[in-house]
């Protein structure tokens, strides 16, 4: 039935399966259904499909248009693809051949140049930092050369490193170029070093450093010339050029001397000038002496005296001697030529002797270096030279005898050598400290003071408190006292003050002979002056020794006294100190001088013994003022002045307090006075007036 319908409708076979299925569907329907309901169903389906197509067109019309456009060019694309495929098919054999050729060219066994270049590039990349360091070496060397003399050693070390690199890599163009730049820099260094040898006032240390650097440089710059032969000559030439430059600065004086020579030739025998020539010769000899001694001594120390090396089978009789052995002859010849030319112009005998004395000193100076030219002076016509030599040798002999006499040790008691120990002040510190501790309290007991010191944590340090201010005060005080005493005595002796003698030296003493009154007054004035000047140190010393104060240092003591009492505190007790020192020094001077008038060869023993007796006796007389002075300096609030302190001490502590610490003070003062006076007398006796 379906086939009949298909034939009726004229459809071509084979038809679509959907058409056949629809025809079979119509066959199954009744005629009424086909005529009535099926057209409506087909219309509905057509309408639904139309709406679906419209919706699809609305949604995907762009894609459809593009698809249609691409579909229109699909045939051309397929033809191009076919053409390219044919080309690819033809190219593949050539590609295979090129691949085989590339593989053969880059194989390790083929010695490929490309691989070698690539390997070299990689090697350079790996060592780029080393190459940069190598390229920076010339700039670094040049900066070290131009920096300062302090960089010369670094420059030589860098140059040695570059030379080692050059020996390790002789074929490298880079290393060769670096070596050439380094050679230029090191030549500049050699020029700078040689120039520095021509500078004025070259010291030995600088010369040794410079020659040492040149010894390292010259063998590299001039390999065929030994440094031992060239450096001494270079050094002497540089220093000689400096000498010539310095002497050329005397050309104005030389021109004046030449003018005097011309005037002498015109004046004949009546010539009596020569002042400008004398100035020129003295200045010339002075400069010549200084520079010639400096040149030869530095050259010897720098190795200039080394001779040429000798071999076992070489005859050196015809070899050139060291340059230093001939250089002094050249210098001496230059000096002798100047003396031969200009010395006859000077006619004044005193001026000639002065010039020849300079020449003598110059010859002696060079003689210490083996270049004495004194024997050549008579060859230039100096007739007075032998007499001048004799006089100077006589004076030198006398000077040696005087020095030998002065070097003899001082004699003390019993003729033994007197050795005044600077440590006497240090060793006697405990006595002075105990004396101050005894005088500071109302119960002057030595035993209690000693127990108090023993209870301190550091006994030794406590016994030597105040050593520094005491040493300063003793040193400067003794110098000021004896200088003032000697000046006053000398003035009194020269001024014929009543009571003075003839000003001579008598007995064992070397001081001017004065009366007892004059000795008393001179000693009192000198000692009072020294005591007033050194009063601040006395106050600080006493407070350091006392247990009432605990200063950690001199600065803290000065700061505390100034803050509490002002500058007046540094001079507390000055009246009592003057009353103590004036009688003590006056009586010591008078008693010591009275003892030393006894004629005896044992001058040192007499001076020592008389000073001990005088110091002990005067300590008894002056001790009350010392006790009052100590109270005023330690307790200025309670003891305001000497009179009030004296009265308060007597009323509260009794008369015994005025002589507290007498034994300690007597023992210390007697020995210190004996040592000081004996040394003073010996110095006066040996060296004259101070």
What do you see in this structure?
73% of the residues lie in helices and 1% in strands. Among the domains are: 2-102, no CATH class; 423-687, Alpha/alpha barrel (Mitochondrial carrier fold), CATH 1.50.40. The protein starts with a helix and ends with a helix. Helix 9 (227-248) runs antiparallel to helix 11, helix 10 packs across helix 11 and helix 19 (467-494) runs antiparallel to helix 21 (535-545). The protein is mainly alpha-helical and 690 residues long. The radius of gyration is 59 Å and the shape is elongated. It contains 26 helices and two strands. A two-stranded antiparallel ribbon has the order 1-2. The relative contact order is 0.04. The protein has helices at residues 2-9, 17-28, 31-105, 113-126, 128-147, 152-168, 173-196, 204-221, 227-248, 251-267, 275-301, 323-342, 349-367, 385-406, 424-427, 429-440, 446-454, 459-463, 467-494, 516-533, 535-545, 554-565, 574-595, 603-634, 642-653, 662-687; strands at 500-505, 512-514. The model is unreliable at 304-319, 409-423, 499-510 and 594-602 (pLDDT under 50).
Strand content: under 5%
The H-level CATH homologous superfamily of one domain, spelled out, is: Mitochondrial carrier domain
Rg, please?
59 Å
Query: Class of one domain, according to the CATH hierarchy?
Result: Mainly Alpha
Class inferred from helices and paired strands:
mainly alpha
What's the shape?
elongated
Low-confidence stretches: 304-319, 409-423, 499-510, 594-602
Number-wise, the strands total 2
Q: Label the CATH architecture of one domain.
A: Alpha/alpha barrel
Mean pLDDT over all positions: 75
Helix segment tally? 26
Q: What is the fold-level CATH name, i.e. the topology of one domain?
A: Mitochondrial carrier fold
In which order are the strands of the major sheet placed? 1-2
Instruction: Outline the biggest β-sheet.
Output: 2 strands, antiparallel
Q: Report the order of strands and helices.
A: HHHHHHHHHHHHHHHHHHHEEHHHHHHH
Distance between the termini: 171 Å
Share in helix: over 70%
């Amino acid at each position: 039935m379906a086939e009949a319908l298909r034939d009726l409708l004229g459809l071509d076979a084979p038809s679509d399966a959907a058409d056949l299925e629809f025809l079979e569907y119509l066959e199954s329907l009744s005629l009424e259904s086909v005529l009535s309901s099926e057209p409506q169903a087909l219309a509905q389906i057509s309408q639904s499909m139309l709406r679906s197509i419209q919706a699809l067109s609305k949604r995907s019309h762009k894609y459809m248009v593009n698809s249609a456009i691409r579909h229109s060019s699909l045939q051309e694309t397929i033809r191009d693809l076919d053409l390219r495929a044919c080309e690819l098919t033809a190219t593949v054999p050539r590609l295979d051949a090129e691949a085989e050729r590339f593989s053969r060219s880059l194989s390790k066994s083929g010695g490929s140049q490309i691989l070698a270049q690539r390997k070299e590039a990689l090697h350079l990349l790996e060592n780029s930092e080393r190459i940069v360091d190598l390229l920076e070496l010339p700039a670094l060397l040049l900066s070290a050369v131009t920096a300062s003399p302090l960089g010369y050693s670094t420059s030589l070390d860098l140059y040695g490193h570059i030379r080692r690199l050059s020996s390790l890599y002789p074929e490298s163009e880079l290393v060769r170029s670096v070596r050439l730049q380094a050679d230029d820099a090191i030549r500049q260094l050699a020029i700078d070093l040689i120039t520095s040898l021509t500078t004025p006032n070259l010291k030995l240390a600088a010369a040794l450093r410079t020659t040492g650097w040149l010894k390292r440089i010259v063998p590299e710059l001039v390999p065929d010339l030994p440094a031992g032969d060239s450096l001494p000559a270079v050094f002497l030439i540089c220093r000689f050029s400096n000498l010539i430059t310095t002497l050329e600065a005397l050309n104005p004086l030389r021109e004046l001397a030449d003018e005097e020579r011309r005037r002498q030739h015109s004046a004949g025998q009546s010539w009596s000038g020569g002042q400008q020539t004398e100035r020129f010769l003295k200045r010339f000899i002075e400069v010549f002496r200084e520079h010639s001694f400096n040149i030869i001594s530095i050259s010897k120390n720098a190795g200039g005296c080394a001779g040429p090396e000798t071999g076992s089978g070489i005859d050196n009789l015809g070899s050139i001697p060291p340059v230093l052995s001939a250089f002094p002859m050249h210098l001496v010849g230059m000096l002798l030529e100047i003396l031969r030319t200009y010395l006859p112009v000077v006619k004044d005998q005193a001026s000639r002797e002065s010039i020849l004395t300079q020449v003598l000193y110059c010859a002696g100076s060079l003689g210490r270096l083996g270049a004495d030219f004194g024997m050549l002076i008579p060859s230039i016509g100096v007739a007075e030279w032998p007499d001048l030599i004799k006089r100077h040798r006589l004076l030198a002999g006398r000077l040696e005898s005087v020095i030998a006499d002065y070097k003899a040790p001082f004699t003390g008691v019993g003729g033994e050598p007197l050795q005044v120990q600077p440590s006497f002040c240090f060793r006697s510190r405990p006595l002075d400290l105990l004396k101050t501790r005894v005088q500071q309290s109302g119960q002057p007991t030595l035993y209690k003071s000693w127990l108090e010191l023993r209870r301190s944590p550091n006994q030794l340090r406590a016994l030597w408190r105040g050593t520094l201010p005491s040493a300063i005060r003793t040193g400067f005080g003794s110098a000021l006292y004896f200088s003032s005493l000697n000046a006053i005595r000398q003035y009194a002796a020269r001024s014929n003050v009543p009571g003075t003698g003839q000003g001579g030296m008598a007995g064992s003493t070397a001081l001017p002979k004065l009366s007892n009154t004059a000795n008393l007054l001179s000693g009192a004035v000198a000692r009072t002056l020294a005591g007033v000047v050194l009063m601040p140190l006395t106050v600080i010393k006493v407070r350091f020794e006392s247990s009432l104060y605990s200063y950690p240092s001199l600065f803290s003591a000065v700061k505390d006294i100034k803050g509490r009492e002002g500058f007046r505190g540094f001079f507390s007790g000055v009246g009592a100190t003057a009353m103590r020192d004036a009688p003590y020094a006056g009586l010591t001077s008078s008693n010591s001088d009275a003892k030393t008038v006894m004629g005896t060869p044992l001058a040192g023993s007499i001076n020592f013994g008389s000073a001990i007796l005088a110091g002990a006796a005067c300590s008894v007389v002056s001790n009350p003022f010392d006790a009052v002075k100590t109270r005023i300096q330690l307790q200025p609030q309670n003891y305001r002045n000497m009179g009030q302190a004296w009265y308060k001490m007597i009323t509260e502590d009794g008369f015994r307090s005025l002589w507290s610490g007498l034994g300690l003070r007597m023992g210390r003062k007697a020995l210190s006075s004996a040592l000081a006076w004996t040394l003073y007398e010996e110095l006066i006796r040996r060296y004259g007036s101070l």
